[in-house]
Amino acid sequence: MAVAALILRALLSLILARAAWHKWRDRAQFVEQIRGYRLLPDPIVAPMAIALTLAETIASLALLNPAWSAPAVVAAGLFTLYAAAMAINLARGIAEIDCGCGGPLGAQTTIHWILVLRNALLTAAALFIFATPVPALPLAQWLIVLSASVATALLYEAVEQAIANRQQVTRWRASWKH
Cys-Cys link to 134, which of 66, 82, 159, 164 (CB 3.0-4.6 A)? Predict the structure, then answer.
């Protein structure tokens, strides 16, 4: 279980770092993405954008220390918050909102229930990390963790790209019908 927790730590660290990079790179766009969800009063949208970006940045770095469990709770909170924001808007019948995800999904992917499910799974992974102590590991196991982390990150990126591609194909099909 400890090896799985370490692999998930690396994956969540990568996901949060990529998301934070996307937000730092274009803060104005992220503010507009948050505004698009229509969940916060306008005066607190910009400060919330900074707070979320800082939380992602700090959690992504802190997750790399296997002795710390608090970053996993922060990650779980972020993923839950994002899933809830998407679910609220989907329940309202509003799906044409840029998800604000970053990565392959940063190509103006709109929210969808698959993203809510993805964030629920990421929340579960973060809670697993929180609940799993990591004992000292021999070098051989660290090499396994490193190679498995790379493979897991590549698999995650492939799934993210498939989600983005699915939305693009749906848009193309809709445009051909007109």
Answer: 66
